[in-house]
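Sharing a chain and its predicted structure for anyone who wants a worked example. Both blocks are below, sequence first, tokens second.
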Amino acid sequence: MKKIGITGGIGAGKTAVTDHLQELGYIVIDTDQMSRDMTAPGGKAIPYIREKFGDDLIDETGAMDRKKMRDLVFRDSKKLALLEQGTTMVLIKDLKKLSHELELKGNRVVFYAIPLLFEIGSSMEYDATWLVTADDETRIRRVMKRDGVDRENVIRIMKKQMPEEEKKKLASDVIVNDGDLESLRKQVDELLSKYGLSN
């Protein structure tokens, strides 16, 4: 089974790529969704978060307060490491189990959308890695519109992520998402053809 990791910084447009792949009938494992499930009410990471960070980081629904946690960990690298210990490490374990199950079912290819693919050092586990990228201004504008946050907040998050030039060196292929949706889909289709994966 071919395993292809899809990554990219905040606002790059990974979702647009994975949406297209799913529309074409491919299996896409979204680690962002897995992470949200873990920190939702009743999620497996909630007891850990309550123990390590206190009730203040759990909202009235019983979920992790994502805004409070984001503000906390982007200011304090030790807190970020603590959060990752109870979420990212668990996520990687779950991902390996799910991948094994999909392989046993005889799937030809599975795509994995992993925002921090290079940062967590797991790129070697994939047959290929596709980086979705866009210029900084485009990314900032997208995130401001999508999340309703100010420019300074977006820039602060971007600075915490691995620089785009470093990611480009590590990626097998680069998808430039500065244009329209048609241009993006065309690039994805070309990559599918390159890897012999076209339906």
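Comments welcome. The longest strand covers residues 2-7.
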